[in-house]
Amino acid sequence: MKIVPQVLSSQQVGMCEVGRIKHHLKHNLWNPKSTILFVGYQAPGTLGYSIVNGAKKVKIFGEEIAVNARIEYIEGYSGHADQEGLMNFIYSFINKPKHIFLVHGEAEAQKVLEEKIQKDTGIGVTIPEFGETYEINAIEENEEKIKMTHKIERKIANSIRHEVIERLEKLKEEIKDMDTYVRQDIDDEKLKDEDIFRINEKIKDLEKQIINVIDG
User: Fold this and answer.
1) Gap between the Cα atoms of 126 and 124, Å rounded
2) HSE value, Cβ hemisphere, 13 Å, CA-based, for 64
3) Confidence (pTM)
């Protein structure tokens, strides 16, 4: 059996969104003799998340790839502390914090952690939302007063504009990666004529799509 382990983390490969990992996946996901081993957290909405959660097909560089490989996932090596680790961190303080803000993690997990912190330690917890500003006043009766003073309403149009720019930047990185690996494939003397033809057709399709976006 061919085993292709991939050590993944948000810092290294963006949940399989960019970099060499996408080429490794493209060339191995379809193969039932391959094993893809994920080590670390995969955020919702990412390619890694889709694969780990049982997707039968995924799109990589615009090509639909069947997920036939054996998919394994080790949660214990995540780059972030789990609930137990975070609680131990809180317990380790000699002078306990008066209030805790949870600003990272999935909404459901944040809510569970909020309830556990409040129940087990009695420390107040706030899960701030987008655009909220908080004022922390002086300690009163051994407890800090936390007050939200301002909130920016998220405008959908601005959110979409930001998403367009992010996707454009990601696309630029993927095209750069594709350029590197296509050139490597073309320089391979063992590459068959039909493979070269297939690569050429896919690049022509990509060229048409880009022109359509520009002309649209």
Assistant:
1) 7
2) 3
3) 0.44
